[in-house]
Amino acid sequence: MPIPNGGGGYQLGDGNLNEPVMGYSAAPVTATDTATLTAAQVLNGIILATPTAAASYTLPTVADFEAGGISSANVGSTFEFVIINLASNAAYDITLVTNTGWTITGGGVTVVQELSSARFRARKTSSTTWQLYRIA
User: Fold this and answer.
1) Element of type H or E holding 47
2) CB atoms inside a 10 Å sphere around CB 8
């Protein structure tokens, strides 16, 4: 179905249910080798990773994360982000690691293998903590 001209796209409550739901996304951000991710990288939604060796990406502390972009989030607020590992070497996996204020369901780390991606949902659980779920 083609995208309509002039004001097209689904508008919540507008009644045009046969048109596509439109959103906005900034260009993906990049990361390479072991680093602490910034709030801006995580909140961008897509991280294109090109590690040159096995890498660890550490989440920013919750304090840094909230100061860097979502200081007004309420308990129960959520967002999602994806890490896409573009490395073609089987030894270049990415390990996502927690930092102060974060908990990952199922353990403290998760691995994104070469030539694959992982989708995460973060949920604010208190004024100082976030829970991270790997959902795909």
Assistant:
1) strand 46-49
2) 13
Residue 70 near residue 43 (C-beta atoms within 8 A)? yes
| Residue 27: partners with Cβ closer than 8 Å, 6 or more residues away | none
* Beta strand spans in the chain (E): 29-31, 35-36, 46-49, 55-58, 78-85, 94-97, 102-104, 109-112, 116-124, 130-134
Q: Which two tokens stand for residue 115?
A: 């030539």
Neighbours of 114 (CB within 10 A): 17
What is the distance between the alpha carbons of residues 53 and 106, in angstroms, rounded to a whole number?
25
Domains of the chain, by residue range, sit at 29-134
The predicted-structure confidence for 6-61, as pLDDT tens digits, reads as follows 555 555 555 566 667 677 889 999 999 999 999 999 999 999 999 999 999 999 99
For residue 61 the two structure tokens come to 């502390």
CB 45 within 8 A of CB 81: yes
Beta strand 94-97 pairing with 102-104: unpaired
> Rounded to an integer, what distance in angstroms lies between the CA atom of residue 117 and that of residue 113?
7
With CA atoms as reference, report the closest residue to 44 among 59, 58, 25, 60. Answer: 25
Q: Provide the whole-model pTM.
A: 0.84
